[in-house]
Design goal:
The complex is a heterodimer of chains A (279) and B (291).
Chain A (H helix, E strand, L loop, with lengths): L3 E10 L9 E9 L3 E5 L6 H8 L7 E6 L2 E2 L5 H5 L2 E4 L12 H11 L4 H14 L15 H13 L5 E5 L7 H17 L3 E6 L2 H4 L4 E6 L2 E6 L1 H5 L3 H5 L6 H11 L11 H14 L1
Parallel strand pairs in A: 3-8, 3-9, 6-7, 7-8
Antiparallel strand pairs in A: 1-2, 1-4, 4-5, 9-10
Helix pairs in contact in A: 3-4, 3-5, 4-5
Chain B lengths: L2 E10 L7 E11 L4 E6 L5 H6 L9 E6 L2 E3 L9 H6 E4 L12 H11 L4 H14 L16 H13 L5 E5 L7 H18 L2 E5 L3 H7 L2 E6 L2 E6 L1 H4 L3 H6 L6 H13 L10 H19 L1
Parallel strand pairs in B: 3-8, 3-9, 6-7, 7-8
Antiparallel strand pairs in B: 1-2, 1-4, 4-5, 9-10
The chains are: A alpha/beta (279), B alpha/beta (291).
Chain lengths: 279, 291
């Protein structure tokens, strides 16, 4: 039996003094070990969902269950111990005076013994390739380095669920790749469940399953391939198709007979090669 | 107004046990009216570099020349004020710097600090609304009631209100969704063309660098690794990969195609349009040849 780690039922939320719902009637589940991506334009409600999930905001209606426990005022603290959240801007999540202290902060709070703490701090920093910065001051690091340290702080706690709220949007392409590879690794090897909130459809391609949000409501749900098949529908709601799909669609418009499914650059080159040889 | 860096070095916390050299041996030239992209891996010194452009940081050795102003480590901070007016910096997440009660007051704050009369500053604020693509009624609102994308436009208007000759953009689209990203980049390109605004773009997006810049500066470990046109810079994807950078996806596709098909694609493929054109040509050429 597959274990449902997170279940959201008919969730609705409005910000104070707003008549429009930021999140309206949203229902979904996440299974243990799964990577679910929630994608949408700015203001589509995706970040509001993240805040609702860790109890930073309280729903107007609907039920959130994490690890089979209903999220409410009594359970929120216990639930938060098992959920790690990485926010977009790393400057707002630093407490330690050195990288080492910062990663150790939450471990200390949770009463982890010192020897174990040292081991986990090193291990977590190694996973995000920031081990050589152990004694640096966080505010002297660049944006991408800070974010990797913030992720290490969460990895050290070995959470059951990691929520990435636009967490890679400030990293350079290689840094982003490293972080996503790290997360994928944790997801596959340690079965840590991942919920990534993003507007980057390249990042979406790495997920097992995707939810598309538009104006507070769920517009679509499916595998990345199914989602990318929506094509221009995604562009119309302010999202960007993966590069190879964009090129493929434009070439098709100009009469080059390519297939319709989601493609990577490699697959596109393969297809073009076949067509080229046939001529 | 040309910008010239000569042997610029910057050491943070110099003469202390925490000293850290962030820049060294930086020699660059940014021509007046050009659009220059600065790229480099996280921590390569890009942000330190850009803070030298308007004297927020002074070189610990070497010289920065902006127009007729020279900045060295000897210069007093107060003499740098005129420079701040000429060089506007749009920092990452500029909306975090909004503070006034209304959008109008926020935009007028800079010019009025430099002695522009209130009426004139307000008139300027109204013009700027159009320029950054916001409706005029936003002026009366609190900046904190706006959406993220609108706040960013207001912050950008605040920088433009100083009528700078040079605008420096540090990852100006970070955190925006794809549509917002495109709109902001197009807006800066329009400003660059219409006002001959010298534009310095610090970015992680090779696609933006390829699409907009005339000239590129590649930073690596605190110094200049290479300079050239986007076409020159993106020629050698292996060398770029070694310092942790990619080529734009269009160039990657071109290279993969060339390898697989055993041909040479003459177009530099710096934008999607160029790439689609180049691929289409490939097929029509074959047709012509067959006939």
């Amino acid at each position: 039996m597959e274990d449902t780690i997170l279940s959201v039922e008919k969730l609705s939320f409005r910000y104070p003094n707003q008549s429009d719902y930021a999140v309206q009637n949203v229902t979904f589940q996440v299974k243990r070990g799964e990577w679910l991506a929630i994608v949408g334009h700015n203001g589509s409600g995706k970040s509001t969902i993240a805040k609702l999930l860790i109890g930073l905001l309280r729903p107007e209606s609907g039920v959130i269950k994490l690890f089979h426990t209903v999220l409410d005022e009594r359970t929120v603290w216990e639930i938060r111990r098992r959920v790690g959240m990485v926010f977009q801007n790393p400057d707002n999540q630093f407490v330690g005076t050195t990288v080492e202290d910062d990663v150790a902060f939450a471990l200390e709070n949770n009463g982890i013994p010192r020897d174990e703490m040292i081991k986990r701090v090193h291990e977590a920093l190694r996973q995000v390739q920031m081990e050589e910065f152990l004694h640096h001051e966080p505010h002297h690091l660049s944006g991408g380095q800070k974010q990797r340290v913030a992720i290490a702080g969460i990895l050290a706690l070995r959470p059951d669920l990691i929520i990435l709220d636009e967490a890679t949007s400030m990293l350079d392409p290689k840094g982003r790749q490293e972080v996503l590879d790290t997360v994928r690794n944790l997801n596959k090897k340690q079965r840590i469940t991942v919920l990534s909130i993003t507007h980057d459809l390249e990042e979406v391609a790495k997920a097992d399953r995707v939810i598309v949000m538009n104006k507070g409501e769920m517009m679509a749900e499916g595998t990345p391939k199914q989602i990318f098949a929506l094509g221009t529908k995604l562009e119309r709601i302010g999202l960007d198709l993966p590069f190879a799909v964009k090129i493929r669609d434009r070439l098709k418009q100009r009469g080059i007979p390519l297939s319709s499914s989601y493609v990577t650059i490699e697959e596109l080159v393969e297809e073009l090669w076949t067509l080229y040889l046939k001529r | 107004m040309d910008i010239i860096f000569e042997k610029v070095e910057h050491v943070y916390n110099a003469n202390s046990p925490f000293a850290r050299r962030a820049l060294y041996d930086v020699d660059i030239m940014i021509e007046s009216g050009s659009y220059v992209a600065v790229i480099g891996h996280t921590g390569s010194g890009k942000s330190t570099l850009l803070q030298h452009l308007n004297g927020l940081l002074q070189p610990t050795s070497g010289t920065v020349t902006v127009g007729n102003q020279t900045i060295t480590n000897k210069k007093r901070q107060r003499d740098l004020k005129p420079l701040r007016k000429k060089v506007g910096i749009v920092f990452q997440f500029p909306e975090h710097q909004l503070f006034e009660e209304t959008v109008e007051k926020d935009i007028c704050f800079g010019p009025m600090n430099f002695g522009v009369p209130e009426e004139e500053a307000k008139k300027k604020a109204r013009e700027l609304m159009k320029l950054v693509g916001l409706p005029e009624d936003v002026l009366a609102k609190s900046p904190f009631d706006l959406s993220g994308g609108q706040m960013r436009r207001v912050a950008i208007a605040g920088v433009l209100a100083m009528e700078p000759d040079v605008i420096v953009l540090d990852e100006p689209t970070a955190g925006l969704d794809p549509r917002g990203r495109k709109e902001i980049m197009e807006m800066f390109y329009r400003l660059h063309q219409e006002k001959q605004l010298t534009t310095v773009l610090v970015t992680h997006s090779m696609e933006d660098a390829a699409a907009y810049a005339d000239y590129m500066i590649v930073m690596h470990k605190g110094t200049v690794w290479k300079t050239g046109t986007p076409q020159q810079i993106f020629q050698d994807s292996d060398a770029l990969a070694e310092i942790g950078l990619n080529v734009p996806e269009t160039v990657r596709l071109k290279k993969e195609l060339e390898k697989k098909l055993g041909i040479t694609v003459p177009s530099p493929c710096l934008t999607i349009e160029e790439t689609v054109d180049a691929i289409q040509k490939l097929f029509s050429k074959v047709n012509a040849h067959d006939e």
